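Incident log, entry 3
Record: Pilus assembly protein N-terminal domain-containing protein (141 residues)
Problem: checksum mismatch between cached and fresh output.
Input:
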Amino acid sequence: MRRLSLAFAAFFSLCAAAATAQAASPAAAPTAPRTLSVAAGQATTVLLNGAVRDVVVGDPQIADVSVVNDRTLVVLGKRTGVTSLFAFDAQGRTLTGGQVLVSDVAADAVTVQRGSAASTYACDGRCTTLTSAAQPNAGQP
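Fresh output:
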């Protein structure tokens, strides 16, 4: 009976040691999928939790990616649209992934609607007009 209880104790202590070792192993947890917004002709950085080896862009005509170093990417918006971006480490684990939304207007731009005319501005101390267009009236011939 004593041998049986020693065998159970040894088994459970080995299981506990294996679980502790598995929890302590440094596995890179993937970042939750997200949407990255960037204006066409602009760039933004993406910081990673591990060293990147491979980068995949769904449509390189919409966005381009440059690897600055093993933990930093620069995403350049090329033309309006949506594409996907994924970065993988040397073991093939996903470091980040999600959609890249490229718009024709910067995210911090302001659009002012006056009747049927819309104007978009970028402001930083002084405002600069980005676009200004009158929208056609639905009731006019």
